[in-house]
Amino acid sequence: MGVGTSLKHEIVVKADTTDDTSAAVTNASSTSTTNTSSTTQTNTNSTDTTTSKDSSPSTAPTVATKDATTTTVQSTPVSQASSTVVAPLASAPSTVTTTASTPVTTTATLPVSTTSALTPVTATTASDSTPVAPTAPVTAPAATTVTQPTTQAPASSVASTANDFLWDTDDTNLTASVTGINGDYTEVNIPSTVNLNSKNYNVTSVGSNAFVGNTNITSVTINDGLQTIGDGAFAYIPNLTTVDMSKNTTLTTIGNDAFTSSKVSTVDIPSSVTSIGDDAFAYNSNLSTVNLDPSLTTIGKEAFADDTKLTTLTLPSSVQTIGDSAFTSDTGITEVNFGSNSQLKTIGDNAFAYNVSLNDITLPDSLASVGDGAFLSDIGLGSVKLGSGLTSVGNNAFLYDNKLTDLDLSNATSLTTIGSGAFEYAGVTGKLSFPDSLTSVGEQAFAGDNITGVTFGKNLQTIGNTAFAFNNISGAVEFPATTTNIGSEAFLGNQISTLKLDGSQTKVQDSAFKYNRITSVSAPEFTISGVPATDQVATIFTDPAHNVISDLFDLNADGFTEENLNVNDLTNGVTYSYVNGIGTFNIPTGTNSFTFNWNMTNGYSGQYNVVLNNPDIKAVDSQVMAGSDWNPQDNFVSAQLQNGDKLNLNDLTVSVVDSSNKVIDTVDTSTPGTYKVTYSYGNDSTTVTVAVMKKDGTYNIIGSSDSDYSGVSQTPDYSKYAVELSDGTTYTLQSGDLVVAGDDSKDAGTYMVTLSQQGIDNISKLPQSNLYNWSGNIDDTATYTINKANVTITADSVSKYAGETDPALTATFTGPATLLNHDDLQYTVERVAGDDVGEYPISISYNANPNYNVTVVNGTFEVLPSKSSLAGSDYTMYIGDPAPTVSDFKASATDENGNPEAVILDLSKADYSKAGDYEVGLSTADGQKKTVVLHVLSKNDSGGGTTTTPTDPSKPTTPSKPEPPVDPDEPSTPTEPDDPEPENPDVPAEPEEPSQPDKPTTPIIPELPNGSTDSSDQNNVTVQKPSKPINQGTSENEVQKKSQSIINGDSGNTAKVLPAKASAGNIVVLSSSQQVALPSMQASKSQASWEYPAQSGRLPQTGSSNGMLTCLAGIVIAVLGLLGIDIKKRKI
Question: What positions does the domain Gram-positive cocci surface proteins LPxTG occupy (predicted)?
Fold first, then answer.
């Protein structure tokens, strides 16, 4: 592409500075014209955009000035680390004017050395393209110019003048954009204005990827007037340490990746900036200070991600949106401050995730939503206060913030939704009072915390599965009448003693209150799913006087009371009786304590520990979840001296032994088992049991894979799946960990995927398996699909020659290699019947099989016209002659392709020593057969050689009665008969052996009716029989019969030379010794019939049939006629 062929193609232009002047002097020169086509493009490395929205490619004849230098500057690819440097020019400037498809003229000028004022010569380019009329007013496209100095700047210098950069210019608005650098500069100082080709331009932008990957630049200064820094403008500059924007008051936009992956330590964002793009300052490992001024409204995704040296972040009040992961993994940040009148609305997903040094955060009242994982794994975060405008906390927002002991909800009066895992394992401690606005608490929202009590507002609707599992919630929990669902294991593993359900529409899911201390229930009407409150563990300190069931329970659960409890497994001799509607414990004297188990039909059961001696040190048994925290205070109730003075836990001695009675420092919650904890003071002591139980954990297989049917059992590709564990970790599957559930995975279909025993064993070996009893999630959606095999059955096209047996019909099966010999897909190949020459479709039919997608390609069966032939003639020989050969019979043959083929001669039926006619077989290897006759003559017989096999004579017709003898009229010209369809003659009877004749004179061969003669064989004279003139009195049927008689037989159509030794009576011997057989004549049924040997054709006759002489005269005349003698005009 030539220079100046498009509006936005880079052109090397003269870069004038305030110190450079040039004179415009006209220099005449000759010109030549060429055609140049181009596509309008901008000189950017990241996008392909046109100069104007309405500009379009144009093709224009360009007039090039002689001696003018044209140089093309190659654009730099986005991924390159440095700009392309173009050699300087040393010739006069030339101006190129290009007319675009919209009628606007733009100009670009090539620079020259400023040491001499040379004459610019202008070449004008006229557009020959058709302008496209825009649908809206069109702004004239800007001229694009790119500057290139004539001399390279030295290294380690400052790029600050127009000549040091490449430019895009907009002549309409007189603005310029820096698109690259021209030289190995270390410092970049973007000027506010430049003079290019005697025009002043305001520098308003740095183009996308303008300096991307430049390894020389160490500092950048952005001066006033610059409004936009494009995407990737200063990206991946590894030595960039300083960015100075202090003099700029006009910058509004910093593009995506603008300064990503540099070593800038301090950034002062001008007060005019409104948005910082995605990844703009990401991965700047030296960035420690960012000053954001009050016009900023948007911080893009990952804008400051992984800037690990940032310590304090102050966000101006103007900021409304913090993008996803904007400050993620900034591990040095300890404090985030929001402006006093903050307008912040949204904190994006993972915005402050993995900021492990962040201590405390107070969210502004303007904030409406906290995104998923926004503060994930901020393990140093100790307190969070939610603002009054907050409506939702996203999933996992504060997950694993295990030091978050203080969660302040007091101002969160608009909070409606707390997402799944929002505060899971966050260490939230104390009692939580939720606002009336709260309607939904997500799954595992507060699981694994240290919450001691909860109070719900009056609009609560749903609590998700395991939402408050494994906390220390004790006392009473009350649910408002609006509550519709309490999820599975929602309060699993707490110390709740009293449960109140105020509504009638509440559904309590399976295990919702399992492992608690519930002995009091007020729930007049509710529904349950599964067994919601099993494995309760209760303890009471009382005396033997309190021995009735109602002293231990207070139940009103959907019509059931404590009187409906089943009590069993009592200890220490205590019995239980139910008399007159009262359940009573019968306690032997001196009993200090006893235990019993209870259950109720609605899924409520547990164990009760009744302490009767009211000890001075009171402690209770407990069940704790593996991995949770435990301290002696959890089981301690109270202690006092005999005089009634209270004792604190610190006054007591606490000792712990494990299940093997080994003394240990504390209950090891990482190792499930039973621990004995003894509280003692002086001689008094109380021992309780702490059961460390594994948590009920679930694993969920995710993923899917597929394969094609192969005819054998298949297994899923384990690399396409993973196992998500309920503790938030993921298990990477190994080969053999997965199996297909249910049926054998051979046939096409979709199968559920489960863990194999190997997979289950591998999960049980994980470190966290010490804390969990794993079970599969019933909602697993992992699938394995076996697709139908795509197979093609192509009928093989075949052919045969007419008369041959059909070849076998076959087909080609195309599909997976494992199916090539598989027999579960049966198919049949057949063709349309027919043996005539032509094409017949070959089709495929197959049995329906759900494992295949079958494509059938039909074929063609072609019956070809056969070119096979076998010819041969009879042959005559004499006794004693050599045995005849194939050539004697003039035998020849061709195969079906028309190629010559050998003829096999069979003389097995011939006897060369005896005169007679013998059948001789001619045959070929491909099955053709023909029979000819061998005539064997005695030595005294004449003839020999090849003869024509005589045809059977036709039975002569009865001659009509002749008229009285008169001179006959000239016979009328006979009509030409139709060519008869020849028939194969029957083999004639053996003729009488003729006598050796004298050599006859060659007769004149009469002209055939069609005007031709045949002289190919002088020993075989054939006369085409003319039709007899039709008697006017003969009926049409008789004519047709006679004509048919003539057509159907050959014997009445030829006159043949007979041997000299012929029977007398019907033979005429001519003067030339040639003999002619007279025809047989047959009269009609009403006339006498004279029969003549039917060895010759019927000749024209005259005369009457009433007298012998008349007949003889007619015969003689006919013979003479054959010899061409006209008795009327000639004498013999």
Answer: 1099-1132
